[in-house]
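Internal tracking record. Fields below are filled automatically when a chain is submitted to the structure queue. Please do not edit lines marked as system-generated. If the sequence contains nonstandard residues, flag them in the REMARKS field before resubmitting.
Queue: standard
Priority: normal
Entity type: single polypeptide chain
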Amino acid sequence: MMGGIVSGLGGIVHSLLTVYIWVVIIGALLTWVRPDPYNPIVQIIYRLTEPAYRLIRKTMPTVFNGLDLAPIILIIILQVLDVILVNLINAAVLG
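SYSTEM-GENERATED OUTPUT FOLLOWS
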């Protein structure tokens, strides 16, 4: 019973991380086309991604040759976090 709950919560966390990774990807692609900054969808994406970018930019330089690598760094961090959490949850459920 408890294993199913933990596994379900793990699935929800995995799904949320996956959705956030896609939001980061979409936000990075939007910077290439210069969308209307007053568009509500653009504002939501900016509000969801900018705090994480700010945290990364505070800890390390992210601009190389005029290219901001903060989205790539964030995606890598989120992927590593996802793998760690999935393995921890699987270990808790199975072991």
